[in-house]
Amino acid sequence: MERDTDGSVDEERVAALRQSVDADGVDELADRLHSDDADERAGAAWRLVEAVTTQPTKVRTVLDDVREAAADDDVWVRRGATWVLAELAERQPDALSVQFSELVSLTRADDPLVQQNGVVAVAGVTKAYPARATTGLSAIAPLAQSGDALVQRYARQAVREVTAAIAERAEDAGYPMVVRSHPEYVDLFPEGVSVVTVTGDDERSRPVHVAFGQDAPVESDEFGGDEPERGPPEEIPDPPDVTLEAEALSPDLKLRAGVLATDYRADVDEDVLEHGLATLRRLRADESAVASAFADAVEQWAGVDDHDHVVAVLGRGARWLATRYDDGDTLERRGAPDTLAEAVWDANALTRAVSHAHSRGVVHGGVHPGAVRFAETGARTWDAPLLGDWGFAHAASARRTPPVPAAFAAPEHRDPETYGRFDQATDVYGLGALTYFLLTGEPPGDSDDRIPASERNPALPEGADDLFARALAPEKRARFATVLDFQRALDDLAADVAEVGG
Q1: pLDDT for 185 beyond 80
Q2: Among the listed ranges 52-61, 197-206, 480-489, which one has the minimum average pLDDT value?
Q3: Which of 435, 471, 437, 469 is nearest to 452 (CA)?
Q4: Do the beta carbons of residue 213 and residue 132 sit within 8 Å?
Q5: Which of 368, 370, 366, 367 is nearest to 332 (CA)?
Q6: Where are the beta strands (DSSP E) in 348-488?
Q7: For residues 32-60, average pLDDT
Q8: Which of 81, 79, 158, 141 is nearest to 115 (CA)?
Q9: pLDDT (tens digit, 9 = 90+) per residue, 71-88?
Q10: At what angle do helices 11-19 and 38-54 cross, to 10 degrees?
Q11: By three-state DSSP, how is residue 306 classified?
Q12: Burial of 319 (0-12, 13-18, 19+ CB in 10 A)
């Protein structure tokens, strides 16, 4: 979307902030976002606005820092950081797909410029992920009546662009698309789009509904062509049988930075490790309590990594661990599988991994798509999902609340004083949220705004909504009592999915 501030941005102020920061490189600018000086933080944010237009792939490696700055107390930091998010959403929307609910919240900001950035960011992701159209357009459309002229203009443009983009994808894919809209917003949609006018209290809170879910998994028989259907592997490849020492690892490429650790690609002598690559994860924090919690987490992780669907620890130290090289490829980056069959298989495999860990007294505490990696199994079989980051949420909780992406956070991640510590019930919630994502293509978000899974993906049987209502209950005692109970309910859902698929 073309940006035109119409003088709403104090260009002299922005220029002065940029000039006040002499840092070179995206990583150094990201570090300056944590400065005690608000002007320095703001200058770094606005320098990153320049960087994201030419180096979006580099900027996405510091995305966690930018997201944190988007909630800064200083308005100029928020403005710059949210502008970065907007630019990145337009260029690499997959980087922000899991943080979609955070982008939507920007459209409700008090500051008009942050609102504008929120509109652009939501539009960028929604165009790439049509299953988010209902949520995205429902957030943007009301802003077409904003008291701020520029916010109003951005919202109108965004509704047209998003609707046209997903309508084109729907037509190419052979999916019918119908937009249901509250009367106040009908005129926003471009010609050629089928729009049905609806009224009522529900339409006030969610004024636009798009009956189109291409990014949600579908029944496999909806796919044509001569390609043989892929299926589950008969066995999962064993991890390398090595124990790596720190001196054997030569990091040469930063993959991504999380709240707790930074991931690097590390070279390893091929005599030590076949293919000569590993993923090295280094603790970012200096606080002794965080370092101690990290070391405890890695030790517990190593105690359950004999399961097929747990990422194997190949080496560890006080502030690092090494795993099989994965190029930073996570479920967060891949998105939901193409078919329900694969989505259900993934959910079942990861649930059994957590159940295995619970039988040994180990709690994950932070299940979400960014913690899921994959092992290749062959050209005709699905890649095997592997769960990592065991205990990282607990260690990261001393640095950020919630310690996992907000759209996947349990109530106890947000408010442990009210809802209690992370425990097995937290993993029930995490698996429920992960399964919701696998089956619908979208995160569940907060219970107040959650859309039933069967509405997001009409291919799901009605029983799916009952499963998620229980697994994602705010109160721990209302959830499944154990992961094993969740697993049994998931098995029942899998049988229903198979029956619906015929």
Answers
A1: yes
A2: 197-206
A3: 469
A4: no
A5: 370
A6: 372-375, 384-387
A7: 94
A8: 79
A9: 999 999 999 999 999 999
A10: 100
A11: coil
A12: middle
Structure tokens at 492: 């029942």
The mean pLDDT value for 114-127 works out to 94
Contact present, 370 and 332 (Cβ < 8 Å): yes
Q: Which pLDDT tens digit goes with each residue over 142-173?
A: 999 999 999 999 999 999 999 998 888 777 65
The string of DSSP codes covering 471-487 is HT-SSGGGS-SSHHHHH
User: Which two structure tokens, joined as six digits, stand for 240?
Assistant: 């390398």
pTM for the predicted model, two decimal places: 0.61
Q: Strand pairing of 179-181 and 195-197?
A: parallel
Instruction: Please state, rounded to an integer, the average pLDDT across all residues of the chain.
Output: 89
Residue whose tokens read 């920007």: 106
- Decide: 68 and 48 in contact? Cβ < 8 Å: no
In angstroms, the CA 439 to CA 181 distance is: 26
Structural contact between residues 341 and 439, judged by C-beta atoms closer than 8 angstroms: no
* Residue 257: its H or E element: strand 250-257
* Structure tokens given for 327: 């190029």
Determine which helix (DSSP H) or strand (DSSP E) holds 17, and give its type and residue range.
Answer: helix 11-19
Residue 372 to residue 383: CA distance in whole angstroms: 12
Looking at residue 214, its pLDDT comes to: 44
pLDDT at 162: 93
What's the longest Cα–Cα distance across the chain?
68
Q: How far, in Å, CA of 420 to CA of 434, rounded?
A: 21
In whole angstroms, what is the distance from residue 172 CA to residue 453 CA? 25
275 near 285, Cβ under 8 Å? no
pLDDT at 219 over 80: no
Alpha-carbon Rg of the chain, whole angstroms? 23
